[in-house]
Amino acid sequence: MPLEDDLTTAAANGDTARVESLLQTGAQVNGLNRFGRTAVQVMMMGSSSVAQVLLKHGADPNVADPRTGSTPLHDAARTGFLDTVRLLVEYTADPEATDNTNCRPVDVAKDNGHADVVAFLESL
Question: Where are the ANK repeats (predicted)?
C-alpha cells in the first residue's frame, strides 16, 4: 500500500502521531491515495491537530473535490468545526471558493446551522 493511502487513513482517523510519522518517512503531503484524494481532503475535520500537521507540512488547503468542487474549507464549514475552519483560513484557504453548486463555505455553514462558523467567515 502506498504511503499516501496510509497517510489519508491516518488523517481520516484523526491519528496525529501517525500522520506526523508518515510525513517524516516520506509520504507526500499532497499525494493522492488510491481514490484520488489527498490527506487534507479526507482528514477528520474535528481534529485540528491533524489539520495543523498537514498544513504545516504544506498541504494545499484549496484542493477541490473533482466531483463536487468542495474544498476542505467547505467540509469543515459544513460540519461546524470552527477550529479547523480557522486553521484552514490561516493557511490560505480561500473563503470565497465556490463548489459545483456555486456555494461558498459560509453558505454551507449557514445551511447547516453553524452560527459560529458563519460569524467567523463573515468577519473576514
Answer: 68-100
